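Narrative of activities, Objective 1.

The group set out to show that a structural description can be obtained from nothing but a protein's sequence at a throughput compatible with the screening campaign. Below is one input-output pair from the validation batch, recorded exactly as produced.
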Amino acid sequence: MKKYMFCFLLFVAASAVCLGIGFAITKDSVRPEEALPGATIETETVTEAQIVINQEEVEPVNAKGKEKFYLVAEDGYLLVLYQDKTTICLYTHMPIVDFPEEERGKLMEGIWFSSMIEVFNYLESYTS
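Output recorded for this entry:
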């Protein structure tokens, strides 16, 4: 029994020494970060110069310009075009043959989406 008690105390002592050495080595390497002068943190409140007075007249960023997306098949692959139907937004590299026959007809004509998230959700629903 004495032998086990001696081994246990030796283990506890060795563990305490290792923890002490580890603490001594790392205590100087951990320093609190200092704020950079002029840096803005995302959680800060809005300054008065950034407040919008005519809030009801402000449009969201995606409501201006090219807010709709057009998914269409060209040369056997799907492309995402902007609202003008000429500017390519995204090459999907997805062959049209991966879609069911009824969806191929729709994709040949083109399908409108109001956001890129809707495009991704549509593509994911047929590819997964």
